[in-house]
Amino acid sequence: MSLIEIILIAVGLSMDAFAVSITLGLSVSKPKTSELLIPGIYFGFFQALMPAVGFFAGFYFAGMVDKFEHWIAFILLCFIGGKMIKDSFDKDAGENKSDENAFKFTKMLVLAVATSIDALAVGVTYAFYKVNILAAALLTGVITFIISVFGVKIGNIFGIKYKSKAELAGGIILVLLGIKFLVEHFLKN
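Above: the chain sequence. Below: its structure as tokens.
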């Protein structure tokens, strides 16, 4: 497998994290440096970790995860997306109010795991092709980090003008991502 192919896979894997980062950017009126970096760190770490786990765990573990990964991602993303949709209709939420809870450890952990489960299967593929897993995992993590930081900023720029509508759109995006995981699973089986 070539370096270009690994980069393309890394970019593809990071797209879910990018979409979620956009929704996180919607939740703050003016992101601090930490709020730009936190999603990148979480998403980059888990997008690097999961292919390595898949690589070393091999077919046995990937087969177990493949049975449930679509449900896990669906439930986690729909739960968080549903909360965002509900919050977008909250009349008490001010237009300029930041959501400090958007970057809490538990929420970020759930989002990072939900968006990186598919990377586990990619790790098994890397094992087939005898890819240097350390280099591939690090490259995936760095690319995801960069894309996630940009996602937060893009979401914030959009969200400043259209906070409640943007939060509604962000929630819908998360729910649709969850549905996408479920549909993709059933289409391939």
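The first helix runs from residue 3 to 26.
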